[in-house]
Structures are given as structure tokens and as C-alpha cells.
Design goal:
The protein has one domain. The chain is built from ten helices and no strands.
Amino acid sequence: MTGMFISFLGTLPMGTLNISAMQISISDGYKPALLFSFGALLVEVIYVRLTLVAMTWFTRHTKLLKAMEWVTLVIIMALAVSSFYAAMNPSVRANPILSNTLHRFWLGAAMSAVNPLQIPFWFGWSTVLTTRNVLKRENNQYIPYIAGIGLGTLIGHCIFIFGGKLLVDSLNARQDVIHWCVGGIFLLTAIIQWMRMVKNQDAISKMTEH
């Protein structure tokens, strides 16, 4: 329950993965969006498991994590540009990146894999829970903890997947307006990501201080 609650709250702020899942649900339907979400949460729980047993390795390879940050920034910018492109071209009904031929499950897994912010996020929470004796360093506690995290992420994504599509359908929003809005969200996310990286106040830098 603790892992699910933390994961659910961490999924609610607008970000690359939940907005992408919402965009896929609007353009392609619920099933592809859910497959995307399952791929993303699978990678997340793998990262959580790795942070529980191999954090020393992560703290020694911060350059790799920072490189992943730049990859994430490029992906967010590409998503913004492709959304604006779809908005300016009425013949294009879906984001070219999110609606490509790659299976949605693997698309979600790939986008989650290059998002390094979840590593220090879960490292921090797992450390707090361990020091407060809420989470013990035992496999019989790790398994339900990780399962709860995956469930919390799924519930959070479902709010965007189903809520976003229901809102768009109820408002009868034009497709180009949707693309402009989603592109703007991606662009804002990219700006925030870039500012954090430039100021060197990202979560990865803070992780090395522990």
C-alpha cells in the first residue's frame, strides 16, 4: 500500500509518459494506451528493483544517467515538434512518433528506459522507508512493495488515459486543438527539464550526495 500510494502520487504531475499515454488514448484508443502504460511500468519496477540492490553502481555512473537525461530531453522536444506538426497539418490525425509502427508496449518500455529521474526518485523514497523501518531489506517485503509501485503507476496512468479521452470526447474538441495543447505541455516539460539540467539541480546530482 505504501509503494502504491507513493507511485500513484508521483504519476499525477504531468510528465512525458502520462501525457504520451493520454495522447495515444485520444488518437488510437484505450488498448494501445494501456499497452504503452504496461511497458512503461514494467521498466519502472525493474529500475526500482535495481535501486534496491545496486545503488552503489548507479552512484558511480552518474555520467550515464546524465546522458540519459539529455536523451529524454531530445525525446520530449521531438514529441512537442511532432504534436505541433500534426496540429498544422489537418491530414495528420495522430502524433507521428506516438502512432508509429512500433508496438505500444515496447514504445512505453523504451521511453521509460531512457527516463533516469525515476531512479533517484525511488532511491530516495526507498531509503526513507528503510531508515524508518517501514521497508525491510528482505525479498518478502520487496515483492509486494514493487508490485504496489506498479499498481500505483497503472492507476495514475489510467486517470490520464480514460479521463483525458472522456474530457476530449465530452468537449468535442477539434483534433488540431488537442495537438496544440499536448505539444504545449511537452514543450513546457522540456523547458523545465532543460532548466534543471542547466542549473545542475536535477535529482541525479542530489542522489550522489547521499
